[in-house]
Each structure stands twice: as structure tokens, then as C-alpha cells.
């Protein structure tokens, strides 16, 4: 193999790709949280319910979540092209990747939220109901604050997962570092480009994980 | 204050049913401390959870403060629950909130203004002796301190009733006593009605006015603590009393005392006395009069809440006329005398 020559790298293209990745990451993470958090809370509440109707809704929701989670992301992107075009007007580029990213990650995050909420001490919830709290108050004042470290850990995992998902968005011309690594580094044998883009993604993941871990420690009171 | 009418609670589905409570009736008067004692699985946890409807009884009515809780809608029930404080075996504090915020919690639920909350919480924290721990988190407190936070929190919404679900079962004996003292103090100071469940006779004996013994989902014995404690009728009640008593005081000690060889004409008698008589020299006066001799085989002098009581097992020696006369005189002085051998 030839000597690596990093001087060949087109740094402006690298910068654009980094920007694209950050944009895809930022927007998709934001929307994933906005959709996944309420969905997770609903999953939790329905699963604890005594009403047969709500238990049925839980089963249906849970089934849908499982389906979305079991479809490989790359297939999800393609399957969602018409849907993406409908809501974003385009089905490619950075905008085109956000809907599939969100739809792929939101159910995953919702499950993490549900799991984090399940970890909250049953006794504390019971005590709150005994004090006359409504379900909405229990969610807002007990479940969310008590499970905050778990929720942050879930957000971290989701954000990291989204970084790797963005890499696949090259399939529909989404751009970004992952796309750069595959197109230049792999298809065109420009190993240097691949190394640098992967390196940037590693840094991004490291930063996210460290930030998440710090926050978890900060908010843990047990 | 609290009345349970024909409460039945059945768990499970068609395949497997467990009856936790069956047709249970209970009445707790305003201002009293009422204890329910029972083994685990007897239904006492279900019983206390039925009072604020954390568990909905399958049948029967729950009345608290003249309102039928079982007939209320969701909103009204939430409102009524605010008048019923509850403390728990495992404290159930918010681990993510400070001591101050935990006590303030019931007040924030009803949107009390901040300055009023501060005033109330400060008051409660000094009542339970935790002024210096206000900004600590529950994980930084001892068990006894956590229960004090629990008590302060339960009192924050000025309840009429306090439910104690095995509130001292997770605490060591010393801490248990200090928590019991606090509960008694609150009961006296605010006239708060307290219903507690426990499996420790000691708790009942220390602070309760009346007691009910629960067994297999029903109440088998009920009455003033002094009465139930000194003259237990049901086997389960006797078990609790004997288990709590030290060896020499319980059934085992009695068997040992009865097995000691003694003259055939001697009579084995159990004498029970209650109240001020406990500290009087009744026995010595009576035997001087009749001329019998006696030996104390076992005995205890203690208190139930603040009433002194004594239990003595004595063997009287003398001719049968003298012994009969002794027993008659003791009865005359209103002691409870029971010939057991």
C-alpha cells in the first residue's frame, strides 16, 4: 500500500461534510426527542393502566415501535422516500434525511424513555397518588425528575446512534462525513479521506458520550 | 373518622383468585391512635391501602371524615386524599428533591404560593427536628431522618387522618421509639387521628389506644389495647403478645415455672393488675392477713401507652381455706385472678 498523503485532502469539502453531519445530527436529535419523549411517556402510562382500552392501545403502539425498530435503517430510508417528499418537498440532501432519521430513532428513544420511567421507585409514585396528585402531576413532578439521569443516558445513546445513522444517509444523497468516507474513502480508494472523516465522527461520538456521562453524574442523587 | 363497611378485596383474574380481605368492618374514632396488627399476608397492607383507595376494594364502602370515598369521582377523590396523610415503611421520598422540596411537594400540587409554602415547611421541619438538613437529599439521611421527612410531608396539607404503613418496620429499636414518640406528640398536639398497621406488638403497646388483630383477611379481635393485651382471646393475639414478651414472660417461661416441683397443696395463680394498683402493696397486705406463703414464679411490670400494668404468676402455699381466702381478698381488691394449676 502506498504512503498516506494527507495533503491531497480537500479540506473545504471536509468542512461542508462536517457541517452537514452536525446539521443532520442536530435537527434529527431534536425532533427525535420531541416525538420520542411523549411517545415513551404514553407507552409507560398505557402499560401501567388497568383500562382494557389503554392496554390495547399499548399493544398496538408497542407493535408499531417494534416494527420500526426491526426494519434495517437503510431500508427505512428508501421506504420513506415518498413520505419524505410529501412533508419536506424533497427526498434528498440534508433536509431529505431528517424525516427517516427521526422516524428511525424516535421509537428507539421512546423505548429508552419507557425503560427509564420503569426504573422509578413504585413507592414514590404510590405516595404521590396518595397525596392527591393527578397523573399529569405525577409525570411532571415525579416521573420525569426522578428518571432524569436515565433519560439523559437514553438521549446520549440515541444521539450516538443518530451519528451512525447519518452515515447511511449518503444512500439518498444526504451528504455528511459518513457519506464522504464511503464515497471517497471506500469507492475511490482515498484512504486518507476515509481516515479523517471517520476520525471526526469518532471525536463527535466521544464528545457526545462524555457530555452525557457528565450530565448523568451531575443529576444523580442516589 | 374512618369507617370501613363490609370491605372485600379480591386479587387476580378468573383463573386464580386470592381473597385479601373478606367482609371486613372497622371504625376508627376521631383523635385516637388505632393499631392494626397482623402477620405478613394477613391483609393489613391491603386494608390500609383501601382507606385512601390506593387499592380499590372489590366490595364495600370506605368512609373518611363523613364522606364516602368509594362513591367519589377521580377529581373529588384527589381532593379528599389531600386530607389523608400517609407514611410508608420505605419512606417513598423523591430522591431527586431536597428535604425542603419533599416536604413542600403536597403544597406544590395544589399551587400554594411560594411564601406560604416556605412558612409551612419551616414550621414542619422544626416540628420534626430537621431544620439543619433542609437542603440535603434523601440519600444523605439516616432511616429515622427519612421517616421524619415523610412525617413532615404527610402533615404539610393539614390532614385530618394519618395512615402509617409499617412506618417503623425498617428502623432500629431506638429510632423506632423516637418516631413513635413523635407520632404520639403529633396526635396529642393536633388531635390527629392515626391509623397504623404493624407486625410489632411493641408499637401497639407504646402508642395505640385501640387495637384490631387481623388474620386471614378478617378482624379476629378488637378493643382497647389494655384489654386485648392483658386478656387476649384469639390464638393469633396470644402469639403476638408472647412473641414480643421476653422468654420468662411468655408461654415458654410459664411452662418452665409450672414444671418446677412444688408441694401438691400449692396453687398456681396468675394475677393481672392495671392502673394505679400496679404500684400498691396489695399482695403483701393480703398474704399478711391470710397467713399464706407465696413464691413468685414469673412476673412483669410495665406500661401500655401510659397505663401501668403487671402480670405475676405466683404459687400460694397454705391450707386450702387460707388460699381460697387469699384469692377472694385479691378479687375483692379488683385484681384479675386466674387459677392455672
Automatic annotation (TrEMBL), chain A:
Any single GO CC term annotated in Swiss-Prot or TrEMBL for this entry: plasma membrane
CDD domains to which the protein is assigned, alphabetical: TM_PBP2 (cd06261)
Keyword terms: Cell membrane, Membrane, Transmembrane, Transmembrane helix, Transport
Stretches assigned to coiled coil: none
ABC transmembrane type-1 domain: residues covered: 18-212
Lipid bilayer topology: Multi-pass membrane protein
Localisation per UniProt entry: Cell membrane
SUPFAM superfamilies named among the record's database cross-references: MetI-like
Pfam families named in the record: BPD_transp_1
Residue ranges crossing the lipid bilayer per the database entry: 21-47, 53-81, 150-173, 193-212
GO biological process: D-methionine transmembrane transport
Major localization listed first in the record, in broad terms: membrane
InterPro entries, per database record: AA_ABC_Transporter_Permease, MetI-like, MetI-like_sf
Homology family: Belongs to the binding-protein-dependent transport system permease family. CysTW subfamily.
PANTHER family assigned to the protein according to its UniProt record, in alphabetical order: ABC TRANSPORTER PERMEASE, D-METHIONINE TRANSPORT SYSTEM PERMEASE PROTEIN METI-RELATED
Protein name, as recorded: D-methionine ABC transporter
TrEMBL record, chain B:
Record's GO cellular component terms: plasma membrane
Domain ABC transporter, first and last residues per copy: 2-241
The organism's place on the tree of life at top rank: Bacteria
Family matches, as InterPro entries: AAA+_ATPase, ABC_transporter-like_ATP-bd, ABC_transporter-like_CS, ACT-like_dom_sf, MetN_ABC, MetN_ABC_transporter-like, NIL_domain, P-loop_NTPase
GO MF, one example: ATP hydrolysis activity
Example GO BP: amino acid transport
Keywords: Amino-acid transport, ATP-binding, Cell membrane, Membrane, Nucleotide-binding, Translocase, Transport
Family that this chain belongs to: Belongs to the ABC transporter superfamily.
Official protein name in the record: Methionine import ATP-binding protein MetN
Organism from which the protein derives: Paenibacillus apis
Amino acid at each position: 500500500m502506498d504512503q498516506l498523503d494527507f495533503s491531497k485532502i480537500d479540506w473545504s469539502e471536509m468542512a461542508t461534510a462536517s457541517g452537514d453531519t452536525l446539521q443532520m445530527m442536530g435537527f434529527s436529535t431534536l425532533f427525535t426527542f420531541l416525538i420520542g419523549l411523549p411517545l415513551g411517556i404514553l407507552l409507560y402510562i398505557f402499560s401501567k393502566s388497568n383500562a382494557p382500552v389503554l392496554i390495547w392501545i399499548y399493544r398496538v403502539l408497542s407493535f408499531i415501535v417494534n416494527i420500526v425498530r426491526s426494519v434495517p435503517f437503510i431500508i427505512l430510508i428508501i421506504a420513506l422516500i415518498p413520505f419524505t417528499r410529501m412533508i419536506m418537498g424533497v427526498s434528498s440532501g440534508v433536509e431529505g434525511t431528517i424525516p427517516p432519521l427521526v422516524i428511525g430513532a424516535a421509537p428507539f428513544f421512546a423505548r429508552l424513555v419507557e425503560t427509564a420511567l420503569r426504573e422509578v421507585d413504585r413507592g414514590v409514585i404510590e405516595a404521590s397518588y396518595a397525596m392527591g396528585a393527578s397523573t399529569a402531576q405525577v409525570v411532571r413532578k415525579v416521573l420525569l425528575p426522578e428518571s432524569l439521569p436515565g433519560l439523559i443516558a437514553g438521549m446520549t445513546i440515541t444521539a450516538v446512534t443518530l451519528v451512525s445513522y447519518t452515515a447511511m444517509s449518503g444512500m439518498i444523497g444526504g451528504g455528511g462525513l459518513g457519506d464522504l468516507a464511503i464515497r471517497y474513502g471506500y469507492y475511490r480508494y482515498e484512504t486518507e479521506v476515509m481516515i479523517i472523516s471517520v476520525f471526526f465522527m469518532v471525536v463527535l461520538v466521544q464528545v457526545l458520550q462524555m457530555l452525557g456521562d457528565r450530565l448523568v453524574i451531575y443529576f444523580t442523587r442516589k | 373518622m374512618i369507617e370501613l363497611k363490609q370491605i372485600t378485596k379480591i386479587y387476580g383474574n378468573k383463573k386464580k383468585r386470592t381473597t385479601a380481605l373478606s367482609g371486613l368492618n372497622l371504625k376508627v374514632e376521631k383523635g385516637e391512635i388505632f393499631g392494626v396488627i397482623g402477620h405478613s399476608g394477613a391483609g393489613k397492607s391491603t386494608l390500609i391501602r383501601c382507606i385512601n383507595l390506593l387499592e380499590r376494594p372489590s366490595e364495600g364502602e370506605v368512609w373518611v371524615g363523613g364522606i364516602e370515598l368509594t362513591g367519589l369521582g377521580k377529581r373529588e377523590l384527589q381532593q379528599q386524599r389531600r386530607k389523608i396523610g400517609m407514611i410508608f415503611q420505605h419512606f417513598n421520598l423523591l430522591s431527586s428533591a431536597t428535604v425542603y422540596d419533599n416536604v413542600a411537594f403536597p403544597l406544590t400540587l395544589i399551587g400554594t404560593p411560594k411564601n406560604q409554602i416556605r412558612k409551612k415547611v419551616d414550621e414542619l421541619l422544626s416540628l420534626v427536628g430537621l431544620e439543619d438538613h433542609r437542603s440535603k437529599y434523601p440519600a444523605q439521611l439516616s432511616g429515622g431522618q427519612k421517616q421524619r421527612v415523610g412525617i413532615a410531608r404527610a402533615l404539610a396539607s393539614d390532614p385530618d387522618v394519618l395512615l402509617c404503613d409499617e412506618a417503623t418496620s425498617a428502623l432500629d429499636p431506638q429510632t423506632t421509639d423516637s418516631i413513635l414518640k413523635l407520632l404520639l406528640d403529633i396526635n396529642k398536639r393536633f388531635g390527629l387521628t392515626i391509623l397504623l398497621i404493624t407486625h410489632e406488638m411493641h408499637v401497639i403497646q407504646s402508642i395505640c389506644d385501640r387495637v384490631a388483630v387481623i388474620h386471614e383477611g378478617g378482624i379476629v379481635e378488637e378493643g382497647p389495647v389494655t384489654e386485648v393485651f392483658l386478656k387476649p382471646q384469639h390464638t393469633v393475639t396470644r402469639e403476638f403478645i408472647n412473641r414480643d414478651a421476653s422468654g420468662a414472660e411468655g408461654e415458654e417461661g410459664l411452662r418452665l415455672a409450672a414444671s418446677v416441683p412444688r408441694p401438691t397443696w400449692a396453687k398456681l395463680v396468675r394475677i393481672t393488675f392495671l392502673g394505679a394498683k400496679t404500684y400498691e402493696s396489695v399482695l403483701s397486705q393480703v398474704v399478711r392477713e391470710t397467713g399464706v406463703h407465696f413464691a413468685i414464679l414469673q412476673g412483669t411490670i410495665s406500661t401500655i401507652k401510659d397505663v401501668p400494668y403487671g402480670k405475676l404468676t405466683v404459687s400460694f402455699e397454705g391450707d386450702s381455706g387460707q388460699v381460697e381466702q387469699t384469692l377472694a381478698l385479691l378479687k375483692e381488691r379488683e385484681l384479675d385472678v386466674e387459677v392455672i394449676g
